[in-house]
Amino acid sequence: MFGKFQKNLGKLFDNAIPIYSLLAFLFLAAIDAAADVPSAVETVAPNLVRIETIGGHEKVGSEFANEGTSTGILLDQEGYVLTGAVNFLHDPASILLVFADGTKKVAKKIATDRLRMLTLLQANDFAGNETKPLTMRSQSSVRIGERCIAVGLVFSAEPNIALGIISGKDRNWGKALQTDAAIGPNNYGGLLIDLEGNVLGIPVPLSMMSDSVVAGAEFYDAGVGMAIPWEDAMVLLPKLKEGNDLLPGWLGFGFKENQTFIGEPVIAGVQPDSPAARAGLKVGDRIVKIDDVPMPTALDVTHDVKSRYVGETLPLVFQRDGAEQTVSLTAVER
Question: Which of 28, 101, 267, 275 has its CA 20 to 30 A from that of 163?
């Protein structure tokens, strides 16, 4: 009798799965039908800039780099344009900006954030032009699973778009939103927006597994796309406007390879003449806090230090022989 019950229950689930799949499909279709994607794109279209570059290095590291077209975002009436750093790693000889109204301006590179891979440009003789302000969504309001649109401007006067969902937050050591929208050269340096045209972030290639200048480009069109939250970019903007590159900071200590994600934060190596070595940290020290924030795992520590810039100073509490000590480390260029 119990066997018959199991058999009938199995049939019920076999029939239910296609029904649930159909309902899920209809639910997503209803969302897409209710969302006015063209209107959302039209909201940000006036701020999209087509960037045309000429000349530069033929190779960046071991990768070939070509002159070509990419996307940027017009920020203000001073002609500042924010874009992805990957579009300028080949150090082009000339930069031409084509704005939404067809206006063309020569631009210069102001500064690059090499941790979050953003580049700030400025158009020559742009003062006085009208600029439409963008509406930002805070990171805290972004929900995993919500629909989003990746927007670029590389082919013509009309934006190219890709639809997807937000599939993760605080990715790449806390630096990025993750989306399954097709992220690649078509929209690097463009915008990631919600279905109402609010800005979520800037699509760029990033990878947790590599510090290469083109890290993350291998995920092109693979359902794993990254975008720097717009909120973070706006915090960094004043520093970029000063004209100084922002570089990833390095402290000079590490953990055992198999403990980076699951182990305790016990130091397994200290590089000579590094900030960690100069602060007196040693193998076997257990990190307790950074900036007064508890660090229960090696992952917590790595997540923190991977987001630091050169010049940032952080107080660090560590435990040695049962006693806690506090030191101050200033991140340097590796």
Answer: 101
Is domain 35-244 annotated with CATH 2.40.10.120? yes
Structure tokens at 69: 């077209």
pTM for the full predicted model = 0.83
Buried b (16+ CB within 10 A) or exposed e, 127-151: eebebeebebbeeeebeeeebbbbb
Query: Which tens digits make up the pLDDT trace of 254-313?
Result: 998 776 677 899 999 999 999 999 999 999 999 999 999 999 999 999 999 999 999 999
d(CA 138, CA 288): 30
Chain segment 117-157, per-residue pLDDT in tens: 999 999 998 876 677 889 999 999 999 999 999 999 988 78
Query: What residue segments make up the domains of the chain, in order of their start?
Result: 35-244, 253-330
| HSE-up of residue 148 (Cα within 13 Å, Cβ side) | 31
**pLDDT above 90 for 186:** no
Domain 253-330 sits in which CATH superfamily? Answer: PDZ domain (2.30.42.10)
**Do 246 and 309 contact (CB within 8 A), yes or no?**
yes
Are 148 and 35 in contact, with CB atoms under 8 Å apart?
no
Residue for token pair 């022989």: 321
Scan for tokens 């597994």, then name that residue.
209
